[in-house]
Amino acid sequence: MSLDAYIAGLPKAELHLHIEGSLEPELMFELARRNKVSIPFDSVEAVRAAYDFSNLQDFLDIYYAGAEVLRTEQDFHDLALAYFRRAAADNVRHAEIFFDPQTHTDRGLPFGVAADGLLSGMKAAETELGVTSKLILCFLRHLDEAAAIDTLNAAEPWLDRIAGVGLDSSEVGHPPSKFRHVFERAGHMGLKRVAHAGEEGPPAYVWEALDVLQIDRMDHGNRSMEDPRLIERLADERMTLTVCPLSNLKLCVVRDLKDHPVPEMLRRGIHVTLNSDDPAYFGGYVNDNYRRLADAVGLSREQVTLMARNSFEGSFLDAADKAARIAEVEAWAARSA
Ligand code: ADE
Ligand code: ZN
User: Fold this and answer.
1) What is the pLDDT of residues 221-272, one digit of tens each?
2) Residue 286 gets which letter from DSSP?
3) Which CATH number is 50's domain given?
4) Mutate which of 139, 278, 282, 289 for ligand 1 pocket (most atoms within 8 A of beta carbon)
5) CB of 200 closer than 6 A to ligand 1?
6) Residue 201 belongs to domain spanning
7) Which end of the chain is less packed: N or C, by CB atoms within 10 Å?
8) In whole angstroms, what is the distance from residue 82 CA to residue 89 CA?
């Protein structure tokens, strides 16, 4: 069996996926029509042609503009279900998805429009596709901590259905310590904590995410590789990194996939997972990330299997569910040997 076919059949979890970043241009047009919202493009091709970014901010500007078409609970339900159908085709068995409530509440939508729509899409995905999922609320780091605290307050009635909090958007100039209090509060409320760190920001931001925000999992983490003590710490703590190769390529975090740090991360004992981040914008879903990275750096079948195992181990599933999912990975590896 080819490595591509092996990757396709490998059961996996996706742990770094912004649901707003799974909005394909076709659905963007459909929602624009349905909601009578005008968008500054006249065709799906024109939208795709605009996805040429030189850094994170370039992408974020267009990503927040795209989210304007999302207006109703049904829109968020449809967005989520479209992602899960695509993910199921990649044999994603579990996904922990991010949403950015402030992108929607700042446009006047009540918190529940996004949250209830996504939760109903997640439930439909479990029934229709057998894909389980958890929801993570991300704070926008370009806004202030008071706005993040308001968001956590607004989320209160939904917190029994929200697994954790995250931190995303423009990294440089917005260090994790800016969100010290809101993360501390989230921790006291029993929520898991994750944060984007070291995507464009320096290793000092990764240290802060660990020490100040007390994260349970790290999103990206690429620039950790500049700091040998940090590499050792991540490996010793078995900190899961949700790495996103095609995102890194599109946002010029790496010049070429051949230069991607994943092989070195694996060699140094870091708990790496592969994910798609914003697949509608970056040109590939999770299996494309596995395949294209494998092609570029020459991953072995064992390395690919390890990262799929890591994806379940680093998830927020309970121990019994993790064990059951990891057994499915092992069964696929044994069957394909
Ligand atoms: N929001 C959506 N995708 C993101 C990324 N890769 N980094 C920071 N914020 C984001
Ligand atoms: Zn991300």
Assistant:
1) 999 999 999 999 999 999 999 999 999 999 999 999 999 999 999 999 999 9
2) H
3) 3.20.20.140
4) 278
5) no
6) 3-335
7) C
8) 11
